[in-house]
Amino acid sequence: MSDQPAALPDEGSGRPAARPTPVIRPRPTVDETRATKAILIGTAVAFLALFVVLPLIAVFAEAFRRGVDHYLESFADPDTQAAIRLTLTVAAIAVPLNLVFGICAAWAIAKFEFPGKSLLTTLIDLPFSVSPVVSGLVFVLLFGAQGYFGKWLAAHDLQIVFAVPGIVLATVFVTFPFVARELIPLMQEQGTAEEEAALTLGASGLRTFLTVTLPNTKWALLYGVLLCNARAMGEFGAVSVVSGHVRGLTNTMPLHVEILYNEYNFVAAFAVASLLAGLALVTLLAKSVLEWRYGDALGRTRLY
Amino acid sequence: MTATASASPRAAAAPWRFRQPSALPGFGLTFGFAVTWLSLIVLIPLAALVMRASGLGLDGIWRITSSPRVLAALQTSFGLSLAAAAVNAVFGLLVAWVLTRYEFPGRRLLDAVVDLPFALPTAVAGIALAAIYAPNGWIGGLVAPLGIQIAFTPLGIFIALVFVGLPFVVRTVQPVLADFDREIEEASATLGATRRQTIVRVVLPALLPAVLTGFALAFGRAVGEYGSVIFIAGNLPFKSEIAPLLIVIQLEEFNYAGATAIATVMLAISFLLLLAINLLQAFSRRRFGHV
Amino acid sequence: MLLRPIAVRSTPARPAVHCAAAPAAARLAALLVLGVGLICGLPAAARAQAVTLVNVSYDPTRELYRAVNDAFAKEWQAKTGQKVTIRTSHGGSGRQARSVIDGLDADVVTLALAGDIDAIARESKRLPADWQTRLPNNSSPYTSTIVLLVRKGNPKGIKDWDDLAKPGVQVITPNPKTSGGARWNYLAAWAFELDRSGGDAGKAKALVAAIFRNVPVLDTGARGSTTTFVQRGLGDVLVAWENEAFLAKQEFGADRFDIVYPSLSIVAEPPVALVDQVVDKRGTRAVAQAYLAFLYGPAAQRLIASHFYRPFRPEHAAPEDLARFGKTRLVTIDGVFGGWAKAQAEHFADGAVFDQIYQAGAQGR
């Protein structure tokens, strides 16, 4: 720790300063002392380590507590495999649906002017702020046996809640805004000039979209899909309400984690959890790479 | 919705139209699809909830939500969410400051780590936190001899809520701080302000809208949080029972009216929060030209 | 959010532009159809394969039904050549009943108490109201009772129900509103005090209230409570199913816990039932009936005893399994409480005794 007096400018950080020339007057203090900096950095690192990194480490530590063999054995259970398959299936349906929606919504909102636009944007954001439990509940109220469409569904032998369609619906609901929110700010920033140029040069609307808009937004799109996918595979609350928890049929990975945890099978619970944590890490890694390399090509104002 | 997606913009004297003229195609299709899909997936289901609740009447909802247990759960949820969001506002600001202002080894890693609570499934976070803070866990075991219990108490809920809300303040403050003109700080210092005065009177006020937005987002997320909390909460009525859990319990007790009433109250609150966030951002945009 | 006004420059539109949207529309439509088709097609595809039975059960039967399902699948295949897969779902008994009422297609339900299956019959009419008379022993192929699991050496000296009400004793039990086992726990304590005081319901209520004041954690299912007590190390005593207590001892080491039999406990009857509407819709009545009958047969009865449940027909069980059960005076729900319907209305309905106890307790907290 240095005990530099506060009045002295701190070299080596902040803006690239000119070489120290004879100082007549101390430069304005626009930086903290080294000690302050060290304390601030230390606090931030400690805070993140305690609240974020430690839980992540705990997942892997518990998963490998009884060795790699035990860890791998956890995945031999057919119910676990079924849960993994179901989670992949649900994500494979939910993510493309929200992708198509996100592109359409972004195109309409970012490239055109119409009244009620901010209301529409707010409504798209709504699923973010709704409690996952409420997201699940609404589908039970609609499609449950006692719900509005319950009688009709039963008469036609269709099952939605406590079956895969209900899980898909709940997942689509909670991941609804992800792609749209990545695209809208970016496409607004980019404006419509390039598309108009393409159209003037004779390109068709679809071609314009594919050759102009899509390349301009591909990284934001990828980023949105990544987040959407991570959330789709990891959703717990909403899916828990509509799932029915039948192993091998309606059990997704996060629900299976809970079940294994409740069966004293902690190694297996954390093993499945470690897959989900691995997915989260891959998502973060991809996101970081995208941001470092294509920072400009991502929407600047993004709030999840 | 307008089907005249390719109306000529030259018709200057045209009567009022829904959409401003544009050369780009596809408005009718994309707008129609987006609105339809939004209605099917989000609006109609939420409307079903409101319809169910309207069957109860305002006084019915009031009677249910003002019962001691529901009030206690709402109090727990909102009180702890406020506390967690406040902690996140302070530490989020600090983390954002460190990440944008200082260069140090591992900064990018730290930056990436901030998003982890968002990417990690809540159930995974829940069992991990329970494993750490239980009386025989890594940290729970350390503080247990001091008579402090974390897991299965409101303190445990608080920790889970800090975890899930952590990225919001950091990510709202970061871009604002990066855009902040340092010459203003220099001017302030030149005029004789100490570093502390500069920060308190010049920098923080400019960051305030962003911090508040992040606070509101973290708060909204925490109020609705379920997965990570139930593993660590203890779920004791009047003490460590959160409102979303109470909705689930009411459902499990066949009490649809109860579940619907609490859910409606929470929906209304999340809508108000969303509105507040939008207003904050609009204000911040007008005032500072950025979010 | 995050909208910025954008300047839309208008350039003369080309007439051809609009039509270009058509292929995109077709593609979109195709995608939508594909998505909807996938959504609707999945459950049907899952059902089309070999016979699958769905058994919706309560919390502590996870291990029991894993063993029973394997045995039944083998027997059924040997007998009929048909492959049967039994899927199970576990959770608090009340919550499981709710799922079935809301449309979870269970071929059979095996819940913690008759009241929850009554609720299914009443609310959804998916099985007849007289379901409990269709199988022997009130449709209960196994019974259990409620015991106290304490930490090794019983440091708090817990011997009977009234010890749970003492200050400084932390009691772990699930929530009677969602868990069947918790309702048995509650009723056993109530029956004890009723018996001791010569029928004074006021005293019984006071004792149960005092016990619940000592509860630091109220999980939604029996298994959650066991985890809290055993794995998380919380509390001095776990009020639990006998089978759950034995299982916890077996899983986590007999050197860590002791089982205490209170002087009086209750016969807990977890009944099983066919859900007529579901088996008729899915065409699984024969195999579902055989599955329930199998539970009463020698092979299953033996498994039942080895999983620490008290078999309906002990003659089929291994004597050493039966020898493990402790002796205590047992009362029945019909004898003391006049059956489940009455007990449910008096104690566990909204605003009934349990709610009163809890709300009174809230003021004291």
UniProtKB/TrEMBL annotation, chain A:
Major subcellular site: membrane
Entry's localization field: Cell membrane
Gene3D superfamilies: MetI-like
Pfam families, sorted: BPD_transp_1
Region called Disordered, residue ranges: 1-27
Residue ranges occupied by any ABC transmembrane type-1 domain in the UniProt entry: 84-285
InterPro entries: CysW_permease, MetI-like, MetI-like_sf, Sulph_transpt2
Transmembrane segments: 38-61, 82-110, 130-149, 161-180, 264-286
Keywords, alphabetical: Membrane, Sulfate transport, Transmembrane, Transmembrane helix, Transport
Biased composition (Low complexity): 15-27
Topology in the lipid bilayer: Multi-pass membrane protein
SUBUNIT field: The complex is composed of two ATP-binding proteins (CysA), two transmembrane proteins (CysT and CysW) and a solute-binding protein (CysP).
Function comment: Part of the ABC transporter complex CysAWTP (TC 3.A.1.6.1) involved in sulfate/thiosulfate import. Probably responsible for the translocation of the substrate across the membrane.
Name of the protein described by the UniProt record: Sulfate ABC transporter permease subunit CysW
Species in which this protein is naturally found: Rhodoplanes tepidamans
UniProtKB/TrEMBL annotation, chain B:
Bilayer-crossing regions: 27-50, 70-100, 112-134, 146-170, 199-219, 256-280
Segments forming domain ABC transmembrane type-1: 74-277
InterPro entries, sorted: CysT_permease, MetI-like, MetI-like_sf, Sulph_transpt2
Cellular location(s): Cell membrane
Main location: membrane
Membrane topology: Multi-pass membrane protein
Pfam families xrefs: BPD_transp_1
Keywords: Membrane, Sulfate transport, Transmembrane, Transmembrane helix, Transport
Coiled-coil zones: none
SUPFAM superfamilies linked to this entry: MetI-like
Role noted for this protein: Part of the ABC transporter complex CysAWTP (TC 3.A.1.6.1) involved in sulfate/thiosulfate import. Probably responsible for the translocation of the substrate across the membrane. Part of the ABC transporter complex (TC 3.A.1.6.1) involved in sulfate/thiosulfate import.
Quaternary context: The complex is composed of two ATP-binding proteins (CysA), two transmembrane proteins (CysT and CysW) and a solute-binding protein (CysP).
PANTHER family on file: SULFATE TRANSPORT SYSTEM PERMEASE PROTEIN, SULFATE TRANSPORT SYSTEM PERMEASE PROTEIN CYST
Protein family according to the UniProt entry: Belongs to the binding-protein-dependent transport system permease family. CysTW subfamily.
Name of the protein this chain belongs to: Sulfate transport system permease protein CysT
Organism of provenance: Rhodoplanes tepidamans (Rhodoplanes cryptolactis)
Annotated gene: cysT
TrEMBL record, chain C:
SUPFAM superfamilies per UniProt: Periplasmic binding protein-like II
Subcellular location, principal: periplasm
Zinc in keyword set: no
Compartmental location: Periplasm
Keywords recorded for this protein, A-Z: Periplasm, Signal, Transport
Similarity comment: family membership: Belongs to the prokaryotic sulfate-binding protein family.
Name of the protein: Sulfate ABC transporter substrate-binding protein
Organism: Rhodoplanes tepidamans
